[in-house]
Specification:
Arc Repressor Mutant, subunit A; 12 strands; TIM Barrel; two-stranded parallel sheet; globular; 18% strand
Length: 327
């Protein structure tokens, strides 16, 4: 039987992290930003206040169980349906994970709280940190990321710079590009100037290939993305396309979703984190297309999921009135 967890999902294939076990450490959608492109949707609680939103003990209990079942992945990735650095138990959680496994730890963060020395101290425990930078100035920051009013762009930027100055691990900076918003020559140059000050090990370019919080968010043409990547420098690459996993790289446990209801629950757990196409689901969960379609039919009949389209692709997501679950 496939165990369902409240705080873990995957392992799922990631273009940046290989096979990654996701660990949610804040509730949906508690965040410091309300980005117009967010695939999870609008922020329900915008805050800069840190507290133990989810106790580390709950997360560690699930992770210990998952490791005990046999966990094969490239990274354990601390993330969330919000901003993970809002959780004051972040540093403790990383330390405790290291007592359970030697699998490297990644932290996916929007980077907005790195101005706080305590957050920098916690984040520095991870093996690789993946922050974001979508704007090179205050006006674009407000338009794209819609931060809490007390958060200024220069404070955010300085936090990233200060973190790089002391952090000895790897920083992979994600830049989300939106056609007509942050893609002019001036905006790209301002981003490039900020990136030069941050000095990340890699720069990853992304764009709106999935449904977004606000309508009308246009993805960049792949050729333009590649041109911007070349302009950014040799350490920049495009990550916009969803990866195709090879079944032999997935843990054996993901190949044993024998029951349709278990498959449906595994799919629904994925969809709670982000909208997915059927190809995404087949790739992430090592499902045949027939099995995925059967499970999606069950979830649709139960009014638990709905569909939307983006750039000619169909994506599945929880229905708007779907109540939260602990699965």
């Amino acid at each position: 039987m496939t165990t369902q967890y409240a705080h873990l999902y995957g392992p799922v294939p990631s273009r940046r992290l290989g096979l990654s076990l996701g660990v949610d450490i804040v509730p949906a959608k508690v965040c410091t930003l309300d980005c117009i492109y967010c695939q999870i949707g609008r922020t329900s609680l915008a805050t800069l206040v840190r507290k133990p939103y989810l106790p580390a003990s709950e997360v560690l209990a699930e992770l210990s169980d998952r490791i005990g079942q046999g966990l094969a992945c490239d990274y354990i990735t601390l993330t969330g349906s919000g901003e993970p650095t809002l959780n004051t138990e972040l540093g403790c959680l990383i330390d405790q994970i290291r007592t359970l496994t030697h699998i490297p730890i990644a932290l996916i963060t929007n980077g907005t709280l790195l101005y706080d020395p305590a957050v920098r101290f916690d984040a520095a425990r991870a093996d690789v940190v993946l922050p974001s930078l979508d704007a090179g100035n205050e006006a674009a920051f407000r338009k794209i990321n819609r931060p809490c009013l007390d958060l200024a762009f220069q404070t955010f930027l300085q936090g990233l710079i200060d973190f790089r100055a002391r952090y000895q691990g790897r920083i992979w900076l994600e830049v989300f590009l939106i056609e007509g918003v942050n893609t002019s020559d001036a905006e790209i140059q301002s981003l490039k100037d900020c990136i030069a000050r941050i000095r990340p090990d890699k720069v990853h370019l992304n764009t709106a290939v999935r449904p977004t919080a606000e309508p009308g968010i246009k993805p960049l043409d792949p050729a333009l993305l590649q041109a911007i990547a070349q302009r950014m420098g040799p350490d920049c690459e495009v990550i916009a396309d969803f990866p195709i996993a090879h079944p032999h790289h997935l843990p054996e446990s993901l190949h044993s979703l024998a029951q349709a209801d278990q498959t449906a629950e595994s799919i629904f757990a994925m969809l709670k984190r982000r909208p997915c196409s059927i190809d995404d689901l087949c790739s992430a969960l090592a499902l045949t297309r027939t099995a995925a379609l059967a499970a999606l039919k069950m979830l649709t009949a139960a009014n638990r999921i709905c569909t939307t389209s983006k750039a000619g692709r169909v994506f599945y997501a929880p229905a708007p009135d779907t109540p939260p679950t602990d699965s």
